[in-house]
Structures are given as structure tokens and as C-alpha cells.
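About this split. The held-out portion is used to measure sequence recovery: a designer receives only the C-alpha cells and must propose an amino acid at every position. Recovery is the fraction of positions where the proposal matches the reference. Here is one held-out target exactly as it appears in the evaluation file.
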């Protein structure tokens, strides 16, 4: 090779190894005595759900520009790297990689499989980021499933519980029948799907009158608990106070008036099923309606569906339509395209099921979280609008429990007799209630001495939202009786870099968690990048 030619395949790996071996970009703790000379970056831990792609490398390149500029500007720069490996994405990766289902294994065995699969991908993550020459401090890395992070995540749970910001409730929740777990509002997205509008004839109990209801979900007919008419709908006002007969299933439900009925859709008369959508949930609560659950956790029909029991809801829908047609109750069926709520992880249409779940209160403080967002400097500035719209559109508190195998356990037991919640002591964390004993020998409420462990795990975002506190070394000092930080000079972090697609996920939840734990927003400015797109 002629002298002077540059051969990247030999030159670049040599320099990359040297930078890592000599800790060229290590955070200089001795020089970080003055917080004003420290520049701290709360870098995103990539989700261990597969290989890194160009979007990840693009994002880390932007972060690297900032880190290198600040170092050259004389700042002691903190630029860590994390691996987000505790959630449903890593679990699904393991299932796909090994062609297994988590339900078929004892929890600890499946968790071991998860760790092995994730370790392989995390090694590749490291090679990719080092190969790109990103000036990460490899002395400051973390996994969201490692014991130190588990302790911080469980400390967060205990602190919010003690503040009265968390509660456990049996209530309608958004449910993914494919993943068989509850999910939060932020994990759903809109998907345009082909469907059909069905005009179905309902009878009025006690006479021969009929009326029409239009629905895209005939499989919910067995779950119908009421029919609603708008109070200003003169044509149908006479039905209010009567009872409707549900075709095929034969049970009777009340016909009620409610202002939230959309008179412009279908016939203007709607059925309420427990549960088809957010409207159904609100009507169920406001009007104190019955509960009829026709679809189970795996998306199959329950005994409420009679002869359709055991069918998948999609199959049941088709069978019910055929039977309605045979019975002369199907008046029309026409193809439409409509927007459906799906789970962003797997693309499955979500259901609404009544389950017992843990929540963090959000709705009562939405205005405060909006103001907290305004305290940060946004780059580009227009991205604050995304945050604002999300906060203003919140309809649910944050559902943080998941019915999965791999994740951080809730540090909770329940009295086997009275159901009293027993919370782990901070000094004992991290704990796993499936293998560890509760901190008491007898229930403080009733004296009973047997306990049930909480089997659910925390939502991955309940942990990822703590990255500023993980990086700053947040912990509980038992002797001092207070929370402390190993590196208080890092907090507030100077910059949160991330993609615009997770403003409602990562950024909002980080604001919530850190605001509740520290009383201040976690970073001074945000750097929001766009997406690398292909032709699709």
C-alpha cells in the first residue's frame, strides 16, 4: 500500500481499543468538585430487543458531538452508556430467539434464558458503539436489570408508596391479549385497519319494535350491558326507559340517555359492552352498570359467550355475524377502514379487562408536570408541543404492573387473611417476594402469619424513567434516614438526548419520577432527534 494511504479497517480498531484501554473519555471525578464545570448527559439506554440499527448510531453520533464539544470547552463531561434489558421487549426477543413462551417455564429458569440472550446482544451493542468511536465513558455503564438498578427501582416504588402516590386497584385496564399483560396508555398506538360495520337489529322487550345498532365488534354482543341514546335525539327518545333484547344471546339490558353518544355515527344508538373502549368504561362507572366479561386474558371467548366459548375473539366475531345473518338480525355489512388501538410492541389490538393492578397517580398533577416540562430548554423548541399534547391528553393514571416473567419484582407481600399490603424495608432492597420473606412475622393489621408474594413485575418504563438517578447514584442512607446521591454534582443533568418517538414514554415518565423524588426536573435541556427512515 502506498505510503500515506489511510486504511480504516486496521487503523480505526487500533485507536478505538486504545481509547477504551487508556480510559480517554472517563469521567474525571477528582476534577468534578464544582458542579458548574461538569456537563452531564443522561444518554438513552438502547432497548435490548434486537440489533442496533442506523437510528441508534445516528442518535449517539449527535450525543457525541455535544460530549466532545463540552470536553473541548473545558467541561468535565459525564457520558455513560446503559442497556435496557428488563422489560417485555427483551422477553419477547428471548421468546423469538429460542422459539419458546415464557409461560412454559418456571420464572427463574426463563429469567436465566433472558440474561443469556441479552448478554449476547449487549456485547454487540458495545462493539457497535465503540466501533463508531463514540466517546462514551465505559467505566459508567449499567443494565436496567442488574441488582444495583433493581434496588433503585424498588426504592422508587417504596418512596412513592410512602408518599401516597401509588395504589393498587381492581379496575378496567388496557390489556394486550398477545403478550397477556396489562399495559399503560403510553404503550398503545393508533393503527389503520380494515374492518366491517355491521347494522344489527335489536328488539325492544315487551313489544314488536326494533331499532338498529351499528358496530365493528359483533363479538362483544354477549358483553352488552346497556344501550344509549343521546338526550337530544328526538327520533329515539321514546326508547329511553325501555329494555333492549340482545340478538342471539337473549339477555335484556336497559336503554339509557347520555350526552356523550355520537349521534352522527351509525344509527345514533350505541351499545355499551364491558369493555370495548374508553366510552364503555366511563358509562360503566357513571351508570353503575353490570359487568359481563366476554373475552379473557388470551383473547378467547368466556362462558358469557355461550356456544362461542373458547373461540378466539376474531373467530367468534365471524361466527356471530353468520348466525345473525341466519336469524335475520344482520341488516347490513359494509367494509370500512378505521383507527384501532394496538400494543406498540406486538401490533395486537388491545382489549379492556377488569384486573388488579398497581398505578402511579398522574391525573391529579398533570398541570404540575406540564409546568415542569416548561422549565426545560427544548432543542428544537417545537418538540415541547409533543410533550404538552401528551400531558393534556392523559386519560389514565400510570399502570406500572406487568404480568410477565422477566422484570424487576414489586417489593410487596399481602396478608393471606386480610389482604394488608406489606412493603419491604428500604435497607433490604433489592428483594424478590417469590423467594424472600416479608419484613414482618405477623400482619400488622390482623396478626395473621401467612403471606402471599406479589407475582407481577414492574413496567420497564418504571425503571428506565430513573436513569438520571441511576447515573447519579441515588440511594437510601439508612443511618441518615434520607436519600442521598453518590454524584450530586451530576444532578440536575445538563442534557437529555433522545428520539421524538419516546417523548411520552421516557421523557415524560422521567420528569414524573424525578420530580416526585427530588422536587425538581431532572435535566436542564433536551436534545430531540428525528428518525432515520427507509422508503417505507
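Reference sequence for scoring:
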Amino acid at each position: 500500500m502506498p505510503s500515506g494511504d489511510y486504511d480504516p479497517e486496521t487503523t480505526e480498531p487500533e485507536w478505538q481499543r486504545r481509547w477504551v484501554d487508556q480510559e480517554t473519555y472517563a469521567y474525571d471525578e477528582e476534577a468534578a468538585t464544582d458542579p458548574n464545570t461538569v456537563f452531564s448527559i443522561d444518554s438513552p439506554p438502547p432497548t435490548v430487543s434486537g440489533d442496533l440499527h442506523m437510528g441508534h448510531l445516528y442518535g449517539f453520533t449527535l450525543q457525541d458531538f455535544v460530549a466532545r464539544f463540552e470536553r473541548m470547552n473545558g467541561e468535565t463531561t459525564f457520558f455513560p452508556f446503559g442497556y435496557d434489558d428488563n422489560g417485555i421487549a427483551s422477553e419477547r426477543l428471548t421468546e423469538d430467539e429460542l422459539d419458546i413462551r415464557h409461560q412454559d417455564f418456571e420464572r427463574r429458569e426463563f429469567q436465566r434464558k433472558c440474561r443469556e440472550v441479552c448478554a449476547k446482544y449487549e456485547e454487540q451493542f458495545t462493539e457497535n458503539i465503540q466501533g463508531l468511536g463514540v466517546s462514551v465513558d465505559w467505566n459508567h455503564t449499567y443494565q436496567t436489570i442488574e441488582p444495583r438498578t433493581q434496588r433503585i427501582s424498588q426504592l422508587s416504588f417504596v418512596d412513592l408508596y410512602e408518599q401516597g402516590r401509588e395504589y393498587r386497584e381492581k379496575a378496567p385496564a388496557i390489556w394486550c391479549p398477545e403478550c397477556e399483560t396489562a399495559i399503560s396508555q403510553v404503550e398503545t398506538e393508533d393503527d389503520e385497519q380494515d374492518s366491517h360495520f355491521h347494522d344489527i337489529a335489536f328488539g325492544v322487550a315487551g313489544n314488536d319494535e326494533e331499532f338498529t345498532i351499528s358496530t365493528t365488534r359483533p363479538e362483544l354482543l354477549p358483553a352488552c350491558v346497556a344501550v344509549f341514546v343521546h338526550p337530544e335525539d328526538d327520533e329515539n327518545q321514546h326508547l329511553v326507559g325501555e329494555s333492549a333484547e340482545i340478538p342471539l344471546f337473549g339477555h335484556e339490558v336497559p336503554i339509557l340517555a347520555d350526552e356523550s353518544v355520537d349521534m352522527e355515527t351509525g344509527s345514533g344508538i350505541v351499545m355499551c359492552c364491558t369493555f370495548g373502549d374508553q366510552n364503555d368504561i366511563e358509562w360503566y362507572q357513571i351508570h353503575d352498570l353490570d359487568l359481563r366479561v366476554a373475552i379473557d386474558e388470551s383473547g378467547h371467548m368466556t362462558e358469557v359467550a355461550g356456544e362461542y366459548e373458547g373461540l378466539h375473539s376474531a373467530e367468534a366475531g365471524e361466527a356471530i355475524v353468520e348466525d345473525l345473518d341466519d336469524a335475520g338480525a344482520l341488516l347490513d355489512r359494509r367494509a370500512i377502514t378505521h383507527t384501532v388501538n394496538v400494543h406498540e410492541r406486538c401490533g395486537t389490538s388491545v382489549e379492556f379487562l377488569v384486573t388488579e393492578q398497581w398505578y402511579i397517580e398522574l391525573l391529579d398533577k398533570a398541570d404540575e408536570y406540564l409546568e415542569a416540562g416548561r422549565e426545560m430548554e427544548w432543542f428544537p423548541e417545537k418538540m415541547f408541543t409533543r410533550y404538552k399534547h401528551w400531558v393534556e391528553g392523559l386519560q389514565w393514571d400510570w399502570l406500572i404492573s406487568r404480568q410477565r416473567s422477566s422484570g424487576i419484582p414489586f417489593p410487596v407481600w399481602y396478608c393471606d387473611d386480610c389482604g394488608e399490603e406489606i412493603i419491604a424495608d428500604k435497607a433490604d432492597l433489592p428483594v424478590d417476594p417469590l423467594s424472600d420473606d416479608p419484613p414482618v412475622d405477623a400482619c400488622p393489621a390482623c396478626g395473621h402469619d401467612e403471606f402471599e408474594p406479589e407475582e407481577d413485575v414492574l413496567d420497564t418504563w418504571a425503571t428506565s424513567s430513573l436513569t438520571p438517578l441511576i447515573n447519579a447514584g441515588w440511594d437510601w442512607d439508612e443511618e441518615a434516614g434520607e436519600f442521598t446521591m453518590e454524584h450530586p454534582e451530576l444532578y440536575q443533568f445538563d442534557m437529555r438526548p433522545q428520539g421524538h418517538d419516546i417523548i411520552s414514554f421516557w421523557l415524560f415518565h422521567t420528569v414524573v419520577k424525578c420530580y416526585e423524588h427530588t422536587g425538581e426536573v431532572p435535566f436542564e435541556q433536551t436534545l430531540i432527534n428525528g428518525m432515520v427512515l427507509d422508503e417505507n
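Annotator remark: Residues 107-131 form the longest helix (25 residues).
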